Known about the structure:
Layout: E1 12-15, H1 20-31, E2 39-43, E3 51-54, E4 57-60, E5 62-63, E6 74-77, H2 81-93, E7 97-100, E8 130-132, H3 136-152, E9 154-163, H4 169-184, H5 188-193, H6 227-240, E10 246-253, E11 260-268, H7 274-283, E12 287-289, H8 301-304, E13 310-317, E14 324-331, H9 335-353
Parallel strand pairs: 1-2, 1-6, 2-5, 6-7, 7-8, 9-10, 12-13
Antiparallel strand pairs: 3-4, 9-11, 11-14, 13-14
Amino acid sequence: MSKKKSSKKPSLAVVGATGAVGTVMLSILSERKDVWGEIRLIASARSAGKKLMCRGEELTVVALSPEAFDGIDVAMFDVPDEVSAQWAPIAVERGAVVVDNSAAFRMDPKVPLVVPEINPKDAKKRPKGIISNPNCTTLSMIVAMGALNKKFELKELVVASYQAASGAGQPGIDSLREQISLVAGTNAGEVAGDVRKFVKDLGAFPAPLALNVIPWAGSLKEDGYTSEELKVRNESRKILGMPKLKVSTTCVRVPVLTTHSLAVHATFKKEVTRKAAQKVLEKAAGVTLLDDPENKKFPTPNDAVGTDATWVGRVRQSLDDKKSIDLFLCGDNLRKGAALNTAQIAELLAVEFTA
């Protein structure tokens, strides 16, 4: 499903422009090459009329409606699953190609799941007029793993994620900030006993997140797994085109505002040394290698926050298997994990609309 090419710059809608990812999206649009003509900001009726800055221009948010998509070539959605499920097809009916950041269409066989560094050609195969953006946890690792897969051929991934509060949206950010403020001025010895004495309202999480880690992200699914854990498995398989890839994941929420981290044990069909893996990662698009353990240099969320790359370090060949490596990586879940990848997909579409 495509449109005729034109010398005129295509128009873009940002749906969910006032949300946590939406605001990052506006910043990213202002930073990247200007490939768009009109940019239209769309949100719920309660946000209509708000003024937001994008590309140095003050834009007025309009309410979500069928008419809001008239004249739009590409619509980027960052809204809850149920909103995307309802409104993405409407946007397509009004003439837009949709790039959706929700989980509503990710596993639909007629909707491509795209990471431009890995499978950009899949963006052209969109019979429903919709392209899906992967989950932020998957995106935080898949660029690096995709590069390694091309060289060494993946067989299995064992992943432990350390996910930031912002992965739960603005409520997650607000909950962690409130909990931190409650314990900030208290005696360290008292807090060490039980944070729940100070944190009564858990907010977006099932346990206190301040000074704690929670082995849970997402909702309960089959066999005790969470939705986040299954997304990493299913989405990695689809993006890499490897439906039988073995993937085991445990997702953990940590008291970090923004940037997801993952510890990955990857097994390949070919032998892989530490130096060979480092060489691939050094050259991989979208990857920053920071791996100097002798000088205690390795990626942390503080390094990755606000940046576009996946940061990789602690690369080691497995002690027990010459076809396996272990590594640690970090990626800003609001940028590459959501807004940036969506913008990159949209830019692939912009090329199609321009002569």
